[in-house]
Amino acid sequence: QVLDIAKRLTGSEFGFAGYIDPQTGYLVCPTHTGDIWDRCRVANKAIVFETFTGLWGWVLTNRKAMLTNAPADDPRSSGTPPGHVPIHRFLSAPSLIDGTLVGQVAVANAHHDFTGRELEVIERLADLYAIAIQRRRTEEELQGHRDQLEKLVKNRTAEVEASKKEL
Description:
Layout: H1 2-10, E1 14-20, E2 27-32, H2 36-39, E3 48-49, H3 54-62, E4 66-68, E5 90-97, E6 100-108, H4 116-166
Antiparallel strand pairs: 1-2, 1-6, 2-3, 4-5, 5-6
Helix pairs in contact: 1-4
């Protein structure tokens, strides 16, 4: 939903929303523009990125939003890999919780130059995405505690039942 809203509000053709895996520190992008797999010709493309490169990598490394309407001329750019869809305009913001990087929202190739207002919109969406990531992680942690408690209760019940039989 975050990606769809980001693309709609900025008029962008492409984009992705990804989260940082807390165990590995890798960027995982389970959501990206639907037809990108058909159009992108990068060899061995994946949704998990172990190293942060290019403009999106700059955003993650520096934990700062960026807007560029001329990526090829931007000194922060390392270019795109062979076979990648050409990027003409790029806008991205990191998702942070208390200064901790948890994800990223990025859009590209609007049919107009990105504006400062659109940068603010993406920054706000990235903040909301960070809250969603944190909520999901908290829910998973709570479920893990529930499962552990359930196992302890089951084991203790079995012990009580065994003691009852002995008596």
